[in-house]
């Protein structure tokens, strides 16, 4: 109980100690003028996505350092990272990275490599691998004033002793920030303040080498100056005659303690640690007993296999900074989603169910039992769950580039999705659905496939998410039936929307709608204010019937895509949205169409025009709606 009382006080003290710095100040930049890329190329699109990812993560990553790669495994791959000074707040870091991301493009247009240095952050991208031991690219900044010649020798000795100490401390830091500050008294009227920092991705040896290289530059560029800094891309050092960083730590040498005082402090610390360990032991025993009781009550015979997936509420709160608004990355009808980082460094997404979401204990139990058994590169992985008191949470792997709809239905961001990426996304979604239908341990019907539920990783590979609240039906059933229609209008098959009947072909229908949306960058929905009677399916069919199918293609793609592939995808989309389930292909058929470029596809028949008939009438709740979104997604499993 003592720990819970003192923890808020520690947080408050930490908050007071971390003061926001002024607006970021530009220091300099480097451009690689030897190689460039053409405007509107794939490389430029990858850079745009990379900079967007770096900016968004600057407000989510508490370590102040983040690196990623876009287009991994392709000739257009681009590496990038940012490094914020270790003593600034996350909002200040975000502001600096945001300014750097905009500034670096204007200062280094069409460059394949660039670095920009601000007073409190560094941002870099390159088409090469990072070399942490290199002093290039880099820059030096010095104060105009010099130290008095009478103090120069003492000054140099004190300065380099301080910097060597900071080098060692930063390289061997036990936190996720390789960052150290300190001060040393030179004379009664002169104190030198220093700082050393590395990117967290560097090993201790790499960090120490990089900082030694930076310190080694000082004698040649800045000897005797009252202040100087050496800025390399992965590390930097700085010293001044004033305290330029935020710190609550005392300077070394200001106060000395006697041996008796030190002994008393050691004894008190040892006693405190022993009492703390005993308290934690008993709390842990009680907690484990409580957790196991919950598992047995809700999961029965499955409880032992799920014990390793259970997260404590304290662990999740620590990972998400107590569900702070800065860590919040999404919201839906089910509740809210937060980004977090576990103690082992793994990034997670926490789906925190709200008490008003309508998801009860039985449904939550079924979802855990189902998703824990699914593993595929095109499915978002469930890492675990938390169930304490009234709190119910699912912990997933973190997928950085948001969902497909975030790019697809925005007039600017959709330009970042070229045809090759869209084709790969459609193929990946198809493989993920095929796994659910045919190759997983349980036969799963998703029932809420839509672009919102397709997430994109660092390399823009698709991962199907939101399997929803599963319901297990009889082994011998080929299809299910329900009175509770959930999902999203515009993606529901006719037999499910009108009669509550669902099968594998329900997911095939949804996939067909997604395919047409990816090709056209338009939603399968009509605005209430629109005079047009066509939804996307109707429009696509009319163009196909009139032998002008390419008219539905996103105008941004018309000059840069193979027409044969586009025609094949349009045909697949129309085949999947046939009115009768038996007329639709299986997902195995769809995947084979992608695998065989020369395969002959059946000719589609007139599809189901959902948005023009019953679906434009009554929703499942009886209200009039042309387009209704329900963020609950229900899965159903067929044990094999």
What would you say this structure looks like, in words?
- It is a single chain.
- This protein is of the alpha+beta class.
- The protein folds into 5 domains: 117 residues, 2-Layer Sandwich (Killer Toxin P4, Chain A); 101 residues, Killer Toxin P4, Chain A; 43 residues; 88 residues, Phosphorylase Kinase, domain 1; 238 residues, Transferase(Phosphotransferase) domain 1 (Transferase(Phosphotransferase), domain 1, Orthogonal Bundle), CATH 1.10.510.10.
- It has a 5-stranded antiparallel beta sheet with strand order 1-4-5-3-2, covered by helices on one side. It has a 5-stranded antiparallel beta sheet with strand order 6-9-10-8-7, covered by helices on one side.
- Strand 4 and strand 5 form a beta hairpin.
- It is flat, with a radius of gyration of 29 Å.
- The N terminus and C terminus are likely disordered.
Largest sheet: 5 strands, antiparallel
Give the tally of structural domains. Answer: 5
Average pLDDT value?
Answer: 80
Oligomer class: single chain
The number of helical elements comes to 16
Task: Considering the chains and any ligands shown, give keywords for the structure.
Killer Toxin P4, Chain A, 19% strand, 640 residues, flat, disordered C terminus, disordered N terminus, alpha+beta
Provide a short characterization of the protein structure.
The chain is an alpha+beta fold.
Blueprint (SSEs and pairs):
Layout: H1 2-17, E1 26-31, H2 42-58, E2 65-70, E3 78-84, H3 90-107, E4 113-118, E5 121-126, E6 138-142, H4 152-171, E7 178-187, E8 190-198, H5 204-222, E9 228-232, E10 235-240, H6 259-299, H7 303-306, H8 313-319, E11 328-332, E12 335-341, E13 347-353, H9 361-371, E14 382-388, E15 391-397, H10 404-408, H11 419-439, E16 442-445, E17 454-456, E18 462-464, E19 471-472, E20 480-481, H12 494-499, E21 501-502, H13 504-520, H14 536-545, H15 563-576, H16 587-595, E22 636-639
Parallel strand pairs: 19-22
Antiparallel strand pairs: 1-4, 2-3, 3-5, 4-5, 6-9, 7-8, 8-10, 9-10, 11-12, 12-13, 13-15, 14-15, 16-22, 17-18, 20-21
């Amino acid at each position: 109980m003592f720990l819970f009382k003192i923890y808020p006080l520690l947080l408050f003290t930490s908050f007071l100690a971390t003061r926001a710095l002024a607006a970021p100040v530009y220091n300099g930049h480097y451009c690689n003028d030897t190689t460039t890329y053409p405007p509107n190329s794939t490389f430029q699109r990858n850079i745009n996505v990379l900079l967007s990812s770096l900016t968004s993560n600057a407000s989510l990553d508490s370590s102040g350092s983040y690196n990623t790669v876009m287009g991994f495994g392709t000739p257009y791959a681009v590496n990038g990272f940012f490094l914020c000074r270790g003593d600034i707040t996350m909002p200040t870091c975000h502001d600096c990275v945001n300014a750097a991301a905009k500034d670096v493009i204007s200062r280094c247009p069409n460059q394949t490599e660039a670095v920009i240095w601000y007073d409190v952050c560094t941002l870099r991208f390159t088409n090469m691998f990072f070399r942490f031991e290199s002093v290039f690219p880099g820059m030096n900044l010095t104060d105009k004033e010099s130290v008095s010649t009478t103090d120069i020798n003492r000054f140099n000795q004190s300065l380099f002793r301080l910097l060597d100490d900071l080098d060692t401390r930063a390289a061997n830091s036990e936190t996720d920030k390789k960052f150290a500050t300190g001060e040393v008294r030179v004379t009664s009227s002169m104190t030198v303040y220093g700082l050393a920092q590395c990117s967290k991705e560097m090993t201790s040896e790499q960090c120490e080498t990089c900082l030694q290289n930076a310190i080694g530059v000082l004698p040649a560029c800045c000897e005797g100056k009252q202040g100087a800094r050496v800025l390399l891309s992965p590390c930097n050092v700085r010293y001044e005659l004033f305290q330029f960083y935020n710190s609550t730590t005392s300077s070394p040498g200001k106060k000395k303690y006697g041996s008796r005082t030190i002994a008393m402090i050691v004894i008190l610390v040892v006693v405190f640690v022993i009492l703390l360990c005993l308290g934690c032991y008993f709390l842990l025993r009680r907690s484990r007993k409580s957790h196991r009781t919950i598992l047995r009550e809700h999961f029965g015979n499955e409880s032992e296999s799920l014990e390793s997936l259970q997260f404590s509420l304290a662990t999740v709160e620590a990972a998400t900074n107590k569900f702070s608004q800065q860590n919040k990355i999404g919201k839906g009808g089910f509740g809210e989603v937060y980004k977090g980082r576990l103690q082992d460094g793994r990034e997670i997404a926490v789906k925190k169910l709200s008490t008003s979401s309508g998801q009860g204990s039985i449904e939550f139990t079924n979802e855990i039992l189902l998703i824990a058994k699914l593993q595929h590169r095109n499915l978002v992985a469930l890492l675990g769950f938390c169930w304490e008191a009234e709190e119910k949470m699912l912990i997933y792997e973190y997928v950085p580039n948001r969902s497909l709809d975030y790019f697809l239905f925005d007039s600017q961001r959709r330009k970042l999705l070229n045809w090759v990426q869209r084709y790969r996304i459609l193929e990946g979604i198809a493989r993920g659905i095929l796994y659910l239908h045919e190759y997983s341990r349980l036969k799963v019907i998703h029932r809420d496939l839509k672009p919102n539920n397709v997430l994109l990783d660092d390399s823009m590979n698709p991962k199907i998410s939101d399997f929803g609240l599963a319901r297990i039906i009889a082994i011998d059933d080929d299809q299910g039936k329900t009175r509770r229609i959930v999902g999203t209008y515009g993606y529901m098959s006719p037999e499910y929307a009108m009669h509550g009947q669902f099968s594998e072909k329900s997911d095939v229908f949804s996939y067909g709608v997604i395919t047409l949306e990816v090709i056209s960058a338009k939603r399968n929905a009509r605005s209430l204010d629109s005079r047009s009677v066509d939804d996307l399916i109707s429009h696509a069919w009319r163009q196909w019937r009139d032998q002008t199918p390419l008219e539905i293609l996103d105008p941004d793609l018309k000059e840069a895509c193979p027409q044969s592939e586009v025609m094949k995808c349009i045909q697949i989309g129309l085949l999947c949205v046939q009115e009768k389930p038996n007329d639709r292909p299986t997902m195995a058929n769809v995947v084979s169409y992608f695998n065989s470029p020369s395969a002959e596809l059946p000719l589609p028949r007139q599809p189901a025009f959902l948005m023009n008939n019953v679906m434009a009438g009554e929703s499942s709740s009886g209200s009039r709606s042309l387009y209704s979104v329900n963020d609950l997604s229900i899965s159903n499993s067929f044990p094999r």
